[in-house]
């Protein structure tokens, strides 16, 4: 099957129309990890909040003060419908500046969508106590096997190949965090390979972890 057959002009409004303009009712594994990391009563900004119910659950479960940003006006309206204060913001704009400070800034599956995530990190790392990040691990065993046996690059996109612009393995990302002057506090793979009751991704993140979560802070 030709994955590129129906490629056309892409916007994130198109992306959310394709995926469904509705806030999810179920938390994903990584979002459960985030909730466990965040302290009750904290101030939270979720950049590129999308269709996630994370802010709703943080507000409900932990009495957090929440704010959502996303580039899609359509998905922002959906967040507002469930009572989340949300704004349409283009974080890739060179003139973009974050005015407020937060206890936690969440970047869930967003850095890989940016050509220069370094610019965003530089702008926001002094505006928060902690960054909560998740990325898809490009070193995941399925991606390695696909390239080895089919000669085809792994597919991480849902609607258009331009969705993901940057790629890291878990080991790459640890080096990248250090280069960004960020200190790792906690790290968990949220999903990956399991054999029966054994979650192999808990032992070998770089090979068997699919999506990996990082709690980091600015180096002192």
From TrEMBL:
SUPFAM superfamilies listed in its UniProt record: S-adenosyl-L-methionine-dependent methyltransferases
Q: CDD domains attached here?
A: AdoMet_MTases (cd02440)
Q: Which residues form a coiled coil?
A: none
Superkingdom of origin: Bacteria
The record's InterPro entries line, in alphabetical order, gives: Methionine_synth_MetW (IPR010743), SAM-dependent_MTases_sf (IPR029063)
Question: In its UniProt entry, what is this protein called?
Answer: Methionine biosynthesis protein MetW
Organism equals: Candidatus Buchananbacteria bacterium RIFCSPHIGHO2_02_FULL_38_8
């Amino acid at each position: 099957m030709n994955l590129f057959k129906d490629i056309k002009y892409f916007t994130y409004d198109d992306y959310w129309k394709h995926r469904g303009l509705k806030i999810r009712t179920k938390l994903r594994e990584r979002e459960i990890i985030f909730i466990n990391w965040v302290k009750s009563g904290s101030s939270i900004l979720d950049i590129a909040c999308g269709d996630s119910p994370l802010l709703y659950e943080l507000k409900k479960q932990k009495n957090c003060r929440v704010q959502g940003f996303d580039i899609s006006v359509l998905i922002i309206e959906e967040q507002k419908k469930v009572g989340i204060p949300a704004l349409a913001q283009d974080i890739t704009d060179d003139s973009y500046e974050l005015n407020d400070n937060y206890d936690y800034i969440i970047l869930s599956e967003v850095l890989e969508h940016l050509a220069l995530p370094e610019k965003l990190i530089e702008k926001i790392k002094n505006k928060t106590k902690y960054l909560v990040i998740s990325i898809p691990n490009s070193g995941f065993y399925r991606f390695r096997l696909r390239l080895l046996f089919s000669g085809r690059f792994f597919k991480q996109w849902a609607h258009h190949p331009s969705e993901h612009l940057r790629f890291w393995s878990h080991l790459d990302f640890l080096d990248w965090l250090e280069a960004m002057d960020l200190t790792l506090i906690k790290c968990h793979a949220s999903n990956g390979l399991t054999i029966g009751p054994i979650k192999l991704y808990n032992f070998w993140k770089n090979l068997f972890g699919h999506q990996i979560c990082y709690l980091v802070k600015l180096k002192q």
